C-alpha cells in the first residue's frame, strides 16, 4: 500500500462502527440497529453546493424515514459550525435539518470510511454516500467530485431498489422505479433454463425474465 493509499470499505463489507460527536449529541452506528442508514459526507459547511444538497436531503427526510432509513451527514467541521450552518439553512431556505450531522474533527470516521482522497483534497471529505442495510452491511457506495452535487432522487431510488430486491429475491433493471418489474435471477442449469421458457415470468429469453414485485 502506498503512502497516500486510502482504505475504503467495499460493498457487502460490514459497515465500520463509529462513535462520534454530532448535532444530536454523541452517536454510534449501532444506535440505529434494525434501520437502514444513509451516511453521506460533504466537503465543508457554508459552501453553496453542499448547501443545496442539505436542503434536498432535508426535504426528503420523511421519505427516507418511511423506508426505515436514517440519514446521517458528516464533515470534518465542528459541531458549532454545523449548528450555525443548519440555522443559516433554515433561515435562508425554510427547511429544518432534522437528521444528525457528525463533527469529524479528528477524521476518525472519515478514515474508517475512506472519505479523504488526497487527489481531491488533503483535508476535506469527498462527497460520498454509503447505503448501509438493517444488518449493518454496506450495500451501495456512490462518490461525487467536489464540483458536482448529488442527485437525491438517485439516492432514494437506490435505497428503494435495494430494499425491494432483498424482499423479493430479485435484481433491479436500469432506471428501475417503484412499480416497475424486476429482473429474475438467471437459471443456473440447462434444465432450469428449459423450464424458465415455460414459466409464468415475462420471458424474453432463457437468461432474461422479469416479474412484478
Based on the model shown, name its key terms.
alpha+beta; Antioxidant, Horf6, Chain A, domain 2; elongated; Glutaredoxin; about 210 residues; 3-stranded antiparallel sheet
Polypeptide structure, described:
- This protein is α+β, with helices and mostly antiparallel strands and 213 residues long.
- The chain contains six helices and ten strands; from the N terminus they run E-E-E-H-H-E-H-E-H-E-E-H-E-H-E-E.
- The protein has two domains: 19-150, Glutaredoxin (3-Layer(aba) Sandwich); 169-211, Antioxidant, Horf6, Chain A, domain2 (Antioxidant, Horf6, Chain A, domain 2).
- Helices cover 29% and strands 20% of the residues.
- The strands form three sheets. Strands 5-4-3-6-7 form a five-stranded mixed β-sheet. The chain has a three-stranded antiparallel β-sheet with strand order 8-10-9, with no helix packed on it.
- The radius of gyration is 20 Å and the shape is elongated.
Q: Could you say what the CATH architecture of the largest domain is? A: 3-Layer(aba) Sandwich
Order of helices and strands: EEEHHEHEHEEHEHEE
Shape call: elongated
Strand order of the largest sheet: 5-4-3-6-7
Largest sheet: 5 strands, mixed
Overall average residue pLDDT:
93
Share of helix, binned:
25-40%
- Examine the coordinates and then state which fold CATH places here, giving the name of the CATH topology of the largest domain: Glutaredoxin
Amino acid at each position: 500500500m502506498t503512502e497516500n493509499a486510502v482504505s475504503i470499505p467495499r460493498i457487502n463489507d460490514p459497515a465500520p462502527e463509529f462513535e462520534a460527536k454530532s448535532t444530536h449529541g454523541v452517536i454510534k452506528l449501532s444506535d440505529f440497529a434494525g434501520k437502514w442508514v444513509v451516511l453521506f459526507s460533504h466537503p465543508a459547511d457554508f459552501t453553496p453546493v453542499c448547501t443545496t444538497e442539505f436542503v434536498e436531503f432535508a426535504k426528503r427526510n420523511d421519505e427516507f424515514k418511511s423506508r426505515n432509513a436514517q440519514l446521517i451527514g458528516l464533515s470534518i467541521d465542528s459541531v458549532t459550525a454545523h449548528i450555525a450552518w443548519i440555522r443559516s439553512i433554515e433561515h435562508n431556505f425554510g427547511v429544518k435539518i432534522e437528521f444528525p450531522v457528525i463533527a469529524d474533527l479528528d477524521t476518525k470516521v472519515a478514515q474508517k470510511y475512506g472519505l479523504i482522497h488526497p487527489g481531491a483534497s488533503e483535508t476535506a471529505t469527498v462527497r460520498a454516500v454509503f447505503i448501509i442495510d438493517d444488518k449493518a452491511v454496506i450495500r451501495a457506495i456512490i462518490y461525487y467530485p467536489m464540483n458536482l452535487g448529488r442527485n437525491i432522487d438517485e439516492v432514494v431510488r437506490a435505497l428503494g431498489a435495494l430494499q425491494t430486491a432483498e424482499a423479493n429475491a430479485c435484481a433491479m433493471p436500469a432506471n428501475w422505479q417503484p412499480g416497475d418489474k424486476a429482473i429474475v435471477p438467471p437459471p443456473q442449469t440447462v434444465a432450469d433454463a428449459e423450464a424458465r421458457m415455460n414459466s409464468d415470468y415475462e420471458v424474453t429469453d432463457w437468461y432474461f425474465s422479469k416479474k412484478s414485485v
